[in-house]
Design goal:
This protein is an alpha/beta fold. It has a single domain, classed as Rossmann fold (3-Layer(aba) Sandwich). Helix 2 crosses helix 3 and helix 5 crosses helix 7.
Length: 297
């Protein structure tokens, strides 16, 4: 029971966002279910395997599920590859409004699930929008500059990264146009993990994207989510996003915030069909955000 949908985002609703909503097969007339929104990663899209896979899991557990392309990604409007974190937060908030308008959704029980970049957006959105009932972050990050320093650890790598940011600013000042750079100049990914990159992912991003990520600090707002629940998942040896990012967010989160560091996983935890990770999520949802329906009177 999948339905292609669109909704509006942007300051003047000028952007059309492309999505898909999934309804459990056992829904009864008048039922309202809690909803889970699955946010894609950096330059990815709603049809990526590490989005559709989790979406099907949540659907089978009884949730209404929404997945969508952020602006500048997939089939949504926006300059392809120009991804500003706060714009993605705005798109996510627009998606919440869309879900609240759906008759099948309990408007007070909408949870966010994100991986990597999508996890940072999920946490930030939960921290600034009290309509979010629960947040699950997989391999997320909370401090853009500290994350980038961990991803470009040597003095030479950090110099190359900051030179790219400066070149991007100069290019925009001189031409009025963004400078496009390779995705791995922004977020390095080891060769052995690149096979996990979804087909159709953005390969060239604006330097403005990197600058916006540098200034994005979800850890500053994660404490606002309490007493709504947060689940932080991270590989204990993440080769893309430093593990300390989730540890530091855990320190700043209110109660209840849970942190699980798992061995035998890497950055793409939710694409690795790891039974232990799936069981952690299932048990956490049962406790804090169960798929319990309400019936219209």
């Amino acid at each position: 029971m999948e339905e292609k949908v669109t909704f509006k985002s942007g300051e003047n609703d000028e952007l059309t966002i492309s999505g898909a909503i999934h309804l459990p097969e056992d829904m009864q007339p008048g039922e309202k279910r809690p909803a889970v929104m699955v946010l894609h990663g950096f330059g990815s899209r709603k049809d990526a395997a590490n989005v559709t896979g989790p979406a099907n899991i949540f659907l089978n557990w009884g949730y209404v599920v929404l997945r969508f392309d952020m602006r500048g990604c997939g089939e949504s409007d926006g300059l392809f590859g120009h991804l500003l974190c706060l714009d993605q937060v705005a798109d996510t908030r627009a998606a919440i409004s869309f879900l609240q308008s759906r008759p099948e959704v309990d408007p007070d029980r909408i949870g966010l699930v994100g991986s990597s970049f999508g996890a940072a957006v999920a946490i930030y959105t939960g921290g600034v929008d009290d309509r979010v009932a629960a947040v699950i972050s997989s391999g997320g990050w909370g401090n853009g500059e500290r994350k980038f320093r961990g991803q470009h650890p040597s003095p030479e790598e950090w110099q190359a990264f900051t030179d790219m940011l400066a070149e991007g600013k100069k290019h925009r000042d001189e031409t009025g146009e963004p400078l496009f750079v390779d995705r791995y100049a922004i977020v390095p990914i080891p060769e052995h993990l690149r096979k996990n990159m979804p087909s159709g992912s953005v390969q060239q991003f604006t330097a403005d994207t990197a600058q916006g990520m540098m200034e994005f600090n979800a850890e500053e707002v994660i404490g606002n989510i309490a007493p709504r629940p947060v689940l932080l998942l991270h590989s204990s040896a993440d080769s893309v996003t430093p593990t300390e990012q989730s540890i530091e967010m855990f320190k700043r989160g209110g109660q209840p915030t849970d942190l699980h560091l798992t061995a035998d996983t890497d950055h793409f935890m939710m694409a690795e069909s790891n039974t232990r990770v799936i069981n952690i999520i299932h048990d956490w949802l049962e406790k804090y955000f169960p798929a319990k329906a309400t019936i219209d009177a």
